[in-house]
């Protein structure tokens, strides 16, 4: 079922989060977390000196959804959006759409020209929702190396077979890095 805005905008208020929102955010948006976790995360956002803006969707005096916008420390024109959560009964009423629109305004007011979110490739429904909001995928490769010494020793023992395809000395920047 597609999101539908059933006139909720009149009863919905998007505002900056306040410390007193923690209990209701825990109840309505983050029941899987402890109350202490929600309170500490909210407090950290509120004390971030403008680095993170947490916006709350309020209906009938209760926070029923939230989103965060965080300035990119490396690029003042980029902001990260995240922690979008809407209470179950309100998910098909367009609350997330209103939160995203408010996040875009907050990011722009703070100098951002680009809004980004990082998701895992398996979150296909979430990825599609962000695409519906105008986000586009950009090519990104994440490489990972385990630094646990015991695991590395086990892996080295298992990988003692020589590579049958030796690296040639032609082709591209990555090849130059490998031969350096």
General description of the model:
- The protein is α+β, with helices and mostly antiparallel strands and 180 residues long.
- It is built from six helices and five strands, in the order E-H-H-E-E-E-H-E-H-H-H.
- It has helices at residues 22-28, 35-46, 95-109, 124-132, 149-158, 172-179; strands at 12-16, 52-59, 62-71, 78-86, 114-116.
- It has a five-stranded mixed beta sheet, sandwiched between helices.
- Helix 1 crosses helix 2.
Give the arrangement of secondary structure elements.
Elements: E1 12-16, H1 22-28, H2 35-46, E2 52-59, E3 62-71, E4 78-86, H3 95-109, E5 114-116, H4 124-132, H5 149-158, H6 172-179
Parallel strand pairs: 4-5
Antiparallel strand pairs: 1-2, 2-3, 3-4
Helix pairs in contact: 1-2
Give a quick summary of the entry.
The protein is an alpha+beta fold. Helices cover 34% and strands 19% of the residues. The protein has helices at 22-28, 35-46, 95-109, 124-132, 149-158, 172-179, and strands at residues 12-16, 52-59, 62-71, 78-86, 114-116.
């Amino acid at each position: 079922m597609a999101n539908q805005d059933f006139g909720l905008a009149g009863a919905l208020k998007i505002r900056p989060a306040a410390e007193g929102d923690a209990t209701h955010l825990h109840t309505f948006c983050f029941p899987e977390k402890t109350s202490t976790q929600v309170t500490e995360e909210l407090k950290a956002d509120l004390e971030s000196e403008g680095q993170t803006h947490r916006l709350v969707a309020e209906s009938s005096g209760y926070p029923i959804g939230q989103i965060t916008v965080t300035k990119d420390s490396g690029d003042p024109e980029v902001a990260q959006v995240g922690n979008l959560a809407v209470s179950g009964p309100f998910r098909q009423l367009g609350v997330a759409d209103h939160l995203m629109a408010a996040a875009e305004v907050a990011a722009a007011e703070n100098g951002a020209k680009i809004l980004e979110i990082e998701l895992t490739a398996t979150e296909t429904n979430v990825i599609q929702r962000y695409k519906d909001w105008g986000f586009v995928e950009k090519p990104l490769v994440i490489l990972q190396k385990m630094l646990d010494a015991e695991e590395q020793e086990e892996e080295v023992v298992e990988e003692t077979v020589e590579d049958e395809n030796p690296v040639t000395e032609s082709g591209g920047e990555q090849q130059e890095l490998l031969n350096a």
